[in-house]
Amino acid sequence: MGEETLQTQQQEAIEEVLSAYPAKAAKNRAKHLGVDSPEGVKGSCDTTRSNKQTVPGVMSQRGCAYAGSKGVVWGPIKDMIHISHGPIGCGQYSRGGRRNYYIGTTGVDTFVTMNFSTDFNEKDIVFGGDKKLKKALEEIDELFPLNNGISVQSECPIGLIGDDIQSVAKIHKKETGHQTVAVSCEGFRGVSQSLGHHIANDMIRDHVMPDSSYKKDFESTPYDVSIIGDYNIGGDAWATRILLEEIGLRVIAQWSGDASYKEMAIAPKSKLNLLHCYRSMNYISRHMEQEFGIPWMEYNFFGPSNTTESLRKIAAFFDEKIQKKTEEVIAKYTAMTDAVIAKYRPLLEGKKVMLYVGGLRPRHVIGAYEDLGMEVIGTGYEFAHGDDYKRTKEDLKRSTLIYDDANEFELEQFVKKMRPDLVAAGVKEKYVFQKMGLPFRQMHSWDYSGPYHGYDAFAVFAKDMDLAMNSPVWNHTQAPWEKEEIGA
Amino acid sequence: MQDVDNIVNGQKLFLKPEYQEVLENKKQFESSVGATNPQKVEEIAEWTKSWEYREKNLSREAITVNPAKACQPLGAVMVGLGFENTMPYVHGSHGCVAYFRTYFTRHFKEPTPCVSDSMSESAAVFGGLANMKDGLRNCNALYKPDMIAVSTTCMAEVIGDDLNAFVTGAREEAEGELDNIEIPYAHTPSFVGSHITGYDNMMKATLEQLNPSRSERVEDEERINIIPGFEPYLGSLREIKNISKMFSDKIIMIGDHEEQWDTGAGEYKLYAGGTKIEDAKTAINAKTTISLQKYSTVSTAKTIKNKWKQEYVTCNPIGLSGTDAFVMKLSELTNKEVPNELKNQRAKLVDAMQDSYAYMHGKKFAIWGDPDFLLGMVSFLVEMGSIPTHVVCHNAPRKGWEDEMKAILEKSNRADECNIWPNKDLWALRSLLFTEPVDFMIGNVYGKELYRDTKIPLIRIGFPIFDRHHLHRYSISGYEGGINLLTWITNSILDHLDEETKDIAQTDYFFDAVR
Asked: Is A214 exposed, middle or buried (0-12, 13-18, 19+ CB in 10 A)?
């Protein structure tokens, strides 16, 4: 398809979608949709409105502040217990859904896949839940003595009934000497999970960072770095860590996939913070820069092109010894990833992809698809901010449909119009597009595969994309009696 | 490094020596008590298996650990999806709806339509009326439903939003756009009851609001309603309808979500199947309403019995006797003899039970789930001679359920070994399993961790089940459902027997080809 035709098609898709809305909603949504291209013209990435209230009454794919704090940032800290404070639902729905891998004895010294809840009933709403929370904290310490701290993740009612959970946490900490953090991440706050990330970061800043109990025994090396904003989905952070170690760095902390409390507390000893998910953890990176003078650097480990570029950028921060080693590591893995590309590119060349994920991947993964000869023709975020779209522009390779906070109606219409060869989004969207006979990959969870970060993981990514695109199951969507007769 | 000819994902990748080294390296930065002190971990792990721990664990008052229940609006969403061209609408933050949709989608492997009106801080201060006014219009414009089923989240309930006034207000301001749409609404606070309470409240509200007042009731002698309850097995809905059809064409399922979560490939349909709104609107005219889940329809029952003055009965058609009672009830209500086809089905189930009983007889089970599910399943286990040793019901109703369960367990010749554990969670069950072990467990996906910890084999029956495919397509109700249960349970027991006897020259003297 020519660039011009593609662009026209994309513009038309937007107009068609907007025409379905009542006037007020159409006016609002128009500001979140657009087309952009890499040529340096001012496009939708510069103008798209983002991080705004979702239009009421639509099937939004967004989550809430609680999901951002408990589900993303705090939840994966493995040796702490995270209490979902409020009614039973939130903790249950978010239980074990994100594939934050970790090593530990669950229920004894690690707790990520468990659900701790204060299970509010009507009485707690009427009379307040502070007493119950205090008791819950005591019971936890008695039954789970190896926990290295507790975080209290507020659900909606807590802020509304005005419970003083901060003081309950403070008292418990004082009485027991145990780290106890109350996080006011009620779901109604903000417009999406994004505010939850920010609130969670602030609480780490205020409670974990000042804890110097582990720092005094820590022996620094000039090569200490921390991985920030990697949730170890399917083991991503481990596949990242191996490369950093191979080029001669020492990873002292992983935030927050497979993280322990101690690691996070010693992170201010890093020489450099390596930030993968900018959206969820730029806040704490900025704080560590201001407070401890630790520089931070964004990097992207999706696909060999991005990984190589990022490794060189990281190495440039260190000395020649590291840089030399880095080139050796790159050379070693490039032989492998070249072979992966040689194997899979012919099977995937020219295939068109539409993406819709959270606050990082809609741009970060573009390069990985490009490495396989695939083209991204539409991308958008559930909860990005303006700076995310500016960063997206750098990754665009051709005319691209941009959709902020797209809801299911819009996605369905866009996909019908653009007919991509692959849709890569979340589980709520998965079956909608598979019903249409379109290959789909879940890009929040790697569809129960992964890892996708780093060189070894690129091989998994390539294999998975081939599996998605070239499965014979897609040939059966149409019944044989419905297919046009060939040569009749 | 990856071998291009044999690319592996995390399952095998992290077993490679270089990754094992990475994991080892990480430990030096980890916790002081955790990963670096394996003896301490081992010691505490052993302690969690003890009677001492059990006592502490069972006497917990404030913290819930690994629950076996969800919150009200989830059940309300299921009710909405049981009616044709109906969009469930949750008045509250969209975060909740993202969770409900994800939860159902993971269980059914199907899309789950549901909208919210995205309430946030401003709604918390000023109330959610503005959200509802815009939300209902937008929902109607985009998704063109015939009915919008409104439920609430805990947020809307805490701030005290009045649905009656809001829905009326939204209608009035909608410039006629909502005039032809049914908008039943129910308050479903998440801090009261569980998902089955939400099912009940939404069902009651839908029936009350769609139907005329009692004075306009025109009784139809032949009409019978069946309310399925919070039913995660689509095959059960299908089978109940099949059985009903054998007796009468005028038996109508109210809240039939079977097709909504079972659509074919080819095109995406937002709405599929469901009870016709016309049929829902005449529910009051029926002679009788049968509820298949007594404890999922407690307040619905009150409306039907007290306001509609209609005959209301409950049947629990899981297992042999449960299905027998249901079939006899239909026979009585329709004045028709039990059809031969059903007689045949029953005979086949009994035959199958007699074929397999030896493997279930005397086996000890732990089982958990919703109250009605447990009554049916435990009844079946007792019929097979099994011993339901631990029956855990986290959302146990205050009245009646325990006595009913006790009566079923009394039929077991080893009732003294059976325990009922109302309002206990799965971390409590873990203690029970370590101190008083069983042979098998029956429950939902959350039993997976209990299986890992205790090594007691898990047979997945219940809700939700995320980690196995297509089980929800089957029935657990009716005679055919009985055969399914028998198949799953017996063959799991046989799988386990093979597993225990597979070691060559060790245990394989009992590794039989014929069972």
From this structure: middle
Contact between B411 and B382 (Cβ < 8 Å): yes
| CB neighbour list of residue B422: distance below 8 Å, 6 or more residues apart | B393, B396, B401, B402
Which one of A45, A64, A182, A200 is the catalytic residue? A64
B348-354: Cβ within 8 A, 24+ apart: B348/B479, B348/B483, B349/B320, B349/B323, B349/B479, B349/B480, B349/B482, B349/B483, B349/B486, B350/B320, B352/B482, B352/B483, B352/B486, B353/B320, B353/B383, B353/B384, B353/B482, B353/B486
Active-site annotation holds for B438: no
Interhelix angle A236-246/A455-469, nearest 10 degrees: 140
Choice among A29, A98, A99, A444 that is catalytic: A98
Residue A65 contacts B, CB cutoff 8 Å = yes
Helix (H) or strand (E) holding B419: strand B419-422
- What beta strand segments (E) does A233-374 contain? 250-256, 272-275, 296-298, 352-355
Sign of CA dihedral B333, B334, B335, B341: negative
pLDDT confidence band for B31 (50 / 70 / 90): confident
Q: Name chain A contacts of B263, Cβ cutoff 8 Å.
A: 435
Q: What is the average per-residue pLDDT within A266-277?
A: 97
- Per-chain mean pLDDT for chain B: 97
Number of residues that this document lists for chain B:
515
Asked if A435 and B31 come within 8 Å (Cβ–Cβ), the reply is: no
How confident is residue B32, by pLDDT bands cut at 50, 70 and 90?
confident
Cβ atoms of residues A419 and B250 within 8 Å:
no
Best residue of B1, B3, B6, B9 to probe chain A, by most A CBs closer than 10 Å: B9
Closest Cα of chain B to A244: distance in Å? 10
pLDDT for the residue A448: 97
CB A470 within 8 A of CB A447: no
A99-112: average pLDDT: 97
CB pairs under 8 A between A and B: 361
Average pLDDT on A309-317 reads 98
Interstrand relation of B364-368 and A352-355 (parallel, antiparallel or unpaired): unpaired
Could you tell me if A75 lies within 8 Å of chain B, comparing CB atoms? no
Residue of B nearest to A128 (CA): B158
| Cβ-defined contact of B23 to A64 (cutoff 8 Å) | no
Percentage of chain A beyond pLDDT 70 is 99
- Whether complex ipTM tops 0.95: yes
Q: Kindly name the residue from A197, A361, A441, A444 that is annotated as catalytic.
A: A197
Interface probe with B: pick from A19, A21, A59, most Cβ of B within 10 Å: A59
Which of B154, B167, B378, B418 does the annotation list as catalytic? Answer: B154
What is the distance in angstroms between the Cα of B233 and the nearest Cα belonging to chain A?
19
Tokens standing for residue B308: 């509609």
Q: What is the pLDDT of residues A424-453, one digit of tens each?
A: 999 999 999 999 999 999 999 999 999 999
Q: Around B145, how many Cα atoms within 13 Å sit in the side-chain half-sphere?
A: 35
| pLDDT band at A311; cut points 50, 70, 90 | very high
CA distance B76 to B423: 22
Give yes or no: B4 in active site. Answer: no
Question: Taking 60 as the threshold, does the pLDDT of residue A320 lie above it?
Answer: yes
A146-192 pLDDT, tens digit per residue, is 999 999 999 999 999 999 999 999 999 999 999 999 999 999 999 99
- For residue A488, name the pLDDT band (cuts at 50, 70, 90): very low
Give the pLDDT mean for A69-83: 98
Cα of B405 to nearest chain A Cα, Å: 25
Q: How far apart are CA A170 and CA A192, in angstroms?
A: 28
A247 contacts A454 by C-beta, under 8 angstroms: no
For B61-82, write each residue's pLDDT tens digit: 999 999 999 999 999 999 999 9
